[in-house]
Amino acid sequence: MRIAIDAHSIGSRAGGNETYFRELLRGLVLDQSDNQYIVFHAGAATLPEVAGDPRFSFVSIPKNPIVRMGITLPRLLRKLKPDVFHCQYVLPPFTRTKTVVTIHDLAHEHFPEFFPPLQGARLRRQVRSTARRADHITTISKFSASDLERTYGVPPEKISIAYQAPSERFCPRDQQTCREHLASTYGIHAPFILYVGRIQQRKNLPRLVEAFAGLKLPEIKLVIVGKQDWQAELLFAKVKELGVEASVVFPGYISDDDLPLFYNAAEVFVFPSIFEGFGLPVVESMASGVPTITSYGSSLEEVAGDGALLVDPLDVSSIADAIRRVLESAELKDQLIKRGLCRSAQLKPENFALKLLETYRALGG
Q1: Which CATH superfamily is domain 2-165+348-364 in?
Q2: What average pLDDT does range 148-169 have in this prediction?
Q3: Given a cut of 70, is residue 46 above it in pLDDT?
Q4: Which CATH number fits the domain 175-345, given the four candidates 3.40.640.10, 3.30.565.10, 3.30.2350.10, 3.40.50.2000?
Q5: Is the pTM of this model over 0.70?
Q6: Is the peptide bond before 191 cis (omega within 30 degrees of 0)?
Q7: Among residues 287, 278, 267, 295, which one has the least CA distance to residue 340?
């Protein structure tokens, strides 16, 4: 079977969208079938996930989404004639190939205020159309599957769930060694509270900063790791308003090699997002053996299970109280570490890829 995968997000620092396809490629390499994979990429410098595997071939496509979706991908699919084509969120037009589309979540439908107006309008139109046109939709949580059924009227038999899993890079490491590396490389000194993810309004970071400021922890920093998105300036304004510029650190986007060190060096990880389809940083944190705090609502309590402490993301005092409890209780820390390691171990990379392979086979024969 010949499977084409639109992996243009690899190399874009696109957070979960990029990680999804990196982990999929890693999982497909482990599979011993004789499938042939055509990977469309937008100039990724390297794809070490599949290095040396002769089953994978690579085709460069434009970064410009109008050219990529409107011209290049339809032309390539007609020329290459794969049995199955897999992409995220939006199908290119005039696609006759059997199609699998991953739709992580419908945040653009429920929280349009978190998106630039034109982008939000485009997503609401195109993702709804794609959900109707695609032969099959795969998503990453029961929450998102139910949302697709309810919001777009997608029949349940057209949807499958492939839970993401933490890379093997995310595991417990020596905390002191990690802290020394961060101090020498980034000038970041422990102890600190950690957030990892894109810097956007949906992630609820102004309330996290408010909670942190209210705790008045002069010896502890708040480290916010990630790429800046639309409206990131509102977060910076909140930091300035609260007078905590010296205590809140923004190291920017961190490489795959160093990101596990940030988790392992942290006192506690906090992911207070308002809406998620999965929330991979929560799983990465738990797999790293870090006490983890995340939100009620959306998919996060499903993904975290009993491995994290849950808070009301709209209540600053709820976030602050959870942070205080973890910092002050060695017993609670230990419980969260043990439960988080157990929960994250239930999510295996090979199961993620195998679930998608089942979908490819069902469609492409």
Answers
A1: Glycogen Phosphorylase B; (3.40.50.2000)
A2: 95
A3: no
A4: 3.40.50.2000
A5: yes
A6: yes
A7: 287
